[in-house]
Amino acid sequence: MHPKISNLADRPDMREQVVGMADSWPEFVVQDLVGAAHFPRIAAELPEYVLFAEDEQGEVVANAFSVPFALHTEGRGRLPANGWDTVLVWAFSDLRRGVRPDTVSAVSVSVVPRAQGRGLSALMLSAMRDNARARGFREVVAPVRPNAKHLEPWTPIEEYAQRVRPDGLPQDPWLRVHARSGAGIDSVAPASMTVAASLDDWRRWTGLPFDTSGDIEVPGALVPVRCEVERGYAVYVEPNVWMRHPV
Fold this sequence. Notes:
Elements: E1 4-7, H1 15-19, H2 33-45, E2 50-54, E3 60-69, H3 83-97, E4 103-111, H4 120-134, E5 139-144, H5 157-161, H6 173-180, E6 184-198, H7 199-206, E7 214-216, E8 225-228, E9 233-246
Parallel strand pairs: 4-5
Antiparallel strand pairs: 1-2, 2-3, 3-4, 5-9, 6-9, 7-8, 8-9
Helix pairs in contact: 2-3
């Protein structure tokens, strides 16, 4: 496969295909309220930061979303503990107020299920870095969702993120892709996104009974989901790993 990579600002006709591209995110992940409010705005208001790859037939097989924001400004300076959620809020707050951005944050990289395992995620990550560099930025940061962490939901994210192979690269596959492209771990974002919803919602999203109070393992979740039966809700607080890419 020799995909063609474009950005949505140059190809606005592809918006529907890019935004509607099939992905493999667990249903509960896309129920984060901050993401639900802000993620759709990227394609509408920041299309130059939406990249996509087309295969030989012109079908969209991968996309990458990022946002520019001001990190080195009063009241910020450090990558936020509420990673993914906060960087989306910062980016659109800055855009609304006309604040000059100095950093680009990755928001998501997705590959259609049929094209996974072909190196497209690494290709899109590289394209995202190139796009930031072309727009005058010197750094890309990423609140990375380690893609094998769901196999060890009880392992603390701090311990998991520091695991390396004999060659010194991270044990986690997605962290490793970032490291191979030159990124280093900055910190952990312990509350990168939060999904709080009724038990009926959680039952619909997962097919699980959610009838016992306590921490519940949910397929695809990086950490257990806290279930409060008597109060009628459950809460998932997802940790991510902040990585920095010099560009």
